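FAQ

Q: What does a record look like?
A: Structure on top, sequence underneath. For example:
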């Protein structure tokens, strides 16, 4: 049974379903070596172990890396909630960089704020060493 657009355990995509979907539809996305840590009713956590290619001068994790994490986590949560929506596209992203993140593991914790028939709004916190280093609101246009 579905409640609005929230999918139950049998109609959304599991972690394995998402990896198979990405391998088929967006194999380049898997080049980043992120890992889906968990998906549940509260949201999704995505992890990336950053290395020198993710750093900016001064040795901190770059803004584009954090934006990629936020956008990817949001898209993967959409897949988990709605199923294989390859044509969903980012229509807006608002990112606030709060602290300079040190190299290492970054966690992107994503929750859905609104899942509508034409758009979805998701919130993402980027966390390293138990410190929130950036927050984002990501809006997706959904295929009609």
């Amino acid at each position: 049974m579905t409640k609005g657009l929230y999918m139950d355990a049998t109609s959304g995509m599991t972690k394995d379903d998402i990896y198979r979907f990405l391998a088929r539809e967006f194999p380049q996305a898997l080049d980043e070596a992120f890992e889906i840590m968990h998906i549940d009713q509260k949201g999704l956590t995505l992890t990336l172990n950053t290395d020198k290619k993710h750093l900016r001068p001064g040795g901190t994790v770059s803004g584009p890396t954090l934006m990629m994490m936020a956008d990817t986590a949001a898209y993967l949560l959409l897949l988990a909630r709605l199923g294989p929506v390859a044509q969903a596209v980012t229509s807006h992203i608002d990112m606030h960089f709060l602290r300079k993140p040190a190299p290492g593991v970054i966690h992107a914790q994503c929750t859905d704020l609104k899942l509508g028939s034409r758009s979805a709004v998701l919130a993402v916190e980027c966390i390293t060493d138990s410190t929130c280093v950036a927050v984002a609101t990501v809006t997706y246009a959904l295929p009609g």
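Q: Is there anything notable about this one?
A: Confidence is low (pLDDT under 50) at residues 1-10.
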